[in-house]
Amino acid sequence: MNSVIYREHILDHYKNPQNFGIVECADIIHKESNPLCGDEIEISAKIKNNKLADIKFRGHGCAISQAAASIMTENLKGKPMEEIMRFSREDMMNLLAIQISAMRMKCALLARHVLNKALLKNLNEKNNENHKRMKKELQNE
Ligand code: FES
User: From the CB of 107, is ligand 1 less than 6 Å away?
Assistant: First the structure.
């Protein structure tokens, strides 16, 4: 795929977001905004049999932040929680697959940031290496 197709992929997700809304009786939920612009994303999810059975987002913001949330939820839905906990900044950037300037980095990573906060807030943190790593990462963001 060339860069034009990648950009179209982002615009397509922005115009037709996947998994937009809220998960009823969610096990994890968190809302946060980008402090630089006030744009906002809320992530809600249901966990079943140690898998991310359902995940949705809602909010408002620029094309990159909203498309990133759509692409992320599409990609993570149904995956084992162990994999969800390891979903990194690099994984998010690979999913977006476009060049992101330093100024737009917060836009690109907002959805993942909110997901991590939701996981940290709602999941058991007993001796969990992923939990410790996520906490450390969030402190540096
Ligand atoms: Fe606000 Fe991108 S400009 S999240």
Answer: yes
Tens of pLDDT, residues 67-105: 999 999 999 999 999 899 899 999 999 999 888 888 899
* CATH number for the domain that contains residue 71: 3.90.1010.10
pTM of the model: 0.87
Residue 63's domain comprises: 3-140
Structure tokens belonging to residue 63: 């094309």
The residue whose CA is least distant from atom 4 of ligand 1 is: 107
Return the ligand 1 atom nearest residue 110 CA.
Answer: 4
The verdict on the CB of residue 63 being under 6 Å from ligand 1 is no
* Longest CA pairwise span in the chain (Å): 45
Domains: count for the chain: 1
Taking only the tens place, the pLDDT of each residue in 120-137 is: 887 665 546 666 777 777
Contacts for 123 with CB less than 8 Å, ≥ 6 apart: 28, 131
